[in-house]
Structures are given as structure tokens and as C-alpha cells.
Amino acid sequence: xSTDPTRVSGSLSVPRSKxxxxxxxxALVTRGLKDIGQLCGxxxxxxFLRRGKAYMDARQHQEAIAAFTEATRLDPQCAEAYDGRGLxxxxxxxxxxxxxxxxxxxxxxTADFTEAIRLDPTRxxxxxxxxxxxxxxLAPDKAIADFTEVIxxxxxxxGAYSLRGxxxxxxxxxxxxxxxxxxxILLDPSDVDAYLCRGRVHAQQRIxxxxxxxxxxxxxxxxPRKAEAYCCRAEVYLTTGNYEEAIADYTEAIRLKPKxxxxxxxxxxxxxxxxxxxxAESDFAEAKRLGYKP
Length: 294
Hints:
There is one protein chain. The protein is an all-alpha fold. It has 15 helices and 2 strands. It folds into 3 domains: 38-120, Tetratricopeptide repeat domain (Serine Threonine Protein Phosphatase 5, Tetratricopeptide repeat); 138-224, Tetratricopeptide repeat domain (Serine Threonine Protein Phosphatase 5, Tetratricopeptide repeat, Alpha Horseshoe), CATH 1.25.40; 236-294, Serine Threonine Protein Phosphatase 5, Tetratricopeptide repeat (Alpha Horseshoe). It is 74% helix and 1% strand. It has a two-stranded antiparallel sheet with strand order 1-2. Helix 14 (261-274) packs antiparallel against helix 15 (277-289). The termini are far apart.
């Protein structure tokens, strides 16, 4: 057999004079083996990452969490695995809302999104997800900060403008709300919620009821089954003395959401203002039965 180490014939032959270089105690070999191990771990992590995504597509959230957890164990630097697990925790929370232990998923999701951002501060989608989570988790300032970072990384992200605008509206910052919501609509003219929110801002400012009416009407045009839009437009009709139009919109809202106690109450006010006291009393009674509290 040839002693040429570059030739392979059935098995690899290494000259004795060079074999010492392959002993495990050699620093270069140790580092090489470590690098190989890391490469293998990364490749296996990618496989578990794919499994986690497949489980998410199948709405098997606990299985997804397990797969993403294994991916993070094999490759602790994989930001995508933490992001995926955070999304799985969030989805599990939504599907099990109110059940024992489901609130723990909120903290786990937030922690995973935060770790993904630490590993990769350019992950726009992770900032958006954490912001969205804070949006519904009653942490408006944190949500605004995350959506602001999304906009810095992606200046044309309509969703970030829309949600940040809605947060500004809830805080009474109408000027910034109008700026963000108008930008959101320019970027995505089909955003029903942006029209609704901008309409509410116009209505609360009581400066331009016509602008509020236009936004609510556009929201209805885009989604004729959105009961909230009819209620919002009806309120403008009610405050401007257009009682028949208000009654018509509240009636449509009730048709879409028959258990909306507030819609019954305000339709009762519209009937009362129009002089139909019998129908007003009937609506007030139904609103009370459904749990409406002034």
C-alpha cells in the first residue's frame, strides 16, 4: 500500500512520521473537532427549526415549542429559533386563553422575542411581534417603542404605523395618532382598522365630523360586516342630530352582533331623541338584560 497520504485506496494510510499531528491532544485538531461539532449542531438545529415551522403550520403549538427548544439547545445563537418559540408560546396562549397556566405563556413569549432581538437586533418581524404582544398585554409604552424600531428598520411598514397610531389614540395623543394613521392608510389603503381608528380620532376632536363620517363609511365599504364601524358612524349621526340614520346604523350593527348591549342602549337614545319612546324603552330593557351598565 502506498504511503502517500493524499491517495485513498480502501483505507487511508498515514505515514508514521506525520501521525503525531492527528493525536487528540493537538490544539489544531481539538479546535477542528469543535468546529465540526458546531457545524453538525447547526445543521441539526436547522432540521428542528424546519420541524417547528411545520408544527406551527399544523397548529400543533406544544410540539412546535419542543422542536424550537431543541433547536436553541443545539444552536444557542439561532435567533430564528427563539423567535419561532416565542410565536408558538403566543399562539398557545391565544388558543388556551383563561385556562390554568396559560398566562405563563405571555412571559415566555416575551422572553423569547427579547432574546431573539438580543441575538439579532435587525429582526424587524420580531420587534413587530413583541410590540403586538405588548399592544394586547397593556404595555403601551413598550409597544410604541417596538413599533418605532420597526419603522426605523422598515419605514414602509404599514402595520407598525397603524398599531402605533392606535396606541397614540388610546393615550389621547391625537396629533401623532393622525400622522401615523394617515401614513398607514397611504401605505395600505385596505386597512379597515386604520380608517376606524382615524375616524374615532376625528370624532373625539369634534372638529370635523365629516372627516370622521368619511373614514367610517370607507371602513364599512371595505368590510360591510364590521359591526364596530356601523356603531362608530351611528354615534356621529346621533351627535349631529341625524337620528334616522343613527337608528339604521345601530340596527345593522345589532343584526351583525345581536348580543351587543351597547348598540341597543345607544339605539334607544336615538329612538328617544326622535320621539319614539316605546322603542327606546324596549331597547333600554334589552341592553340591561344583556348586561349594559351606564
